[in-house]
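Quiz preparation item.
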């Protein structure tokens, strides 16, 4: 397993589909995962530190885990089958729960949990971005600095 960091979310054109982009912590590979608009908003909220007046689903899950004495140890993005990604929530108690990567990432950002990805998955679906292409990634980061959760609502780009 390799640790990855959340670069951010954006809308992929022309399909108008949100993606979350992960980057290998100690490497040059990126992993794009297509996600739903609701999950994109949840990830963007967490990255921007937005605290809703009432808990959203991922906030609720975080609060339920805390209220029951559980913590998220790490998020594992484990595999891809038929272009569908799979993840596992690993609790400090040792319990493992199957989950979607988008929900797992949204929860990890709320709990400060580590996100790791299977080496084989990075080999299969990761995109190598050499240093000379890093300026494109920087443009993406600039985009992320200006995107708002409302950008992921239906019908908007």
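Solution:
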């Amino acid at each position: 397993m390799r640790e990855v960091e959340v670069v951010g979310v954006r809308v992929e054109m022309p399909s108008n589909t949100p993606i979350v982009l992960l980057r290998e912590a100690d490497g040059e590979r990126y992993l794009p995962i297509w996600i739903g608009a609701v999950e994109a908003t949840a990830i963007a909220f967490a990255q921007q530190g937005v605290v809703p007046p009432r808990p959203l689903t991922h906030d609720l899950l975080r609060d339920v885990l805390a209220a029951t004495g559980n913590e998220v140890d790490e998020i594992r993005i484990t595999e891809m089958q038929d272009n569908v990604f799979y993840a596992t929530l690993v609790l400090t108690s040792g319990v493992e729960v199957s989950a979607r990567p988008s929900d797992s990432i949204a929860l990890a950002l709320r709990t400060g949990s580590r996100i790791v990805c299977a080496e084989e998955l990075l080999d299969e679906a990761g995109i190598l971005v050499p240093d000379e292409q890093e300026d494109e990634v920087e443009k993406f980061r600039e985009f992320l600095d200006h995107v708002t959760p409302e950008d992921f609502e239906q019908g908007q780009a």
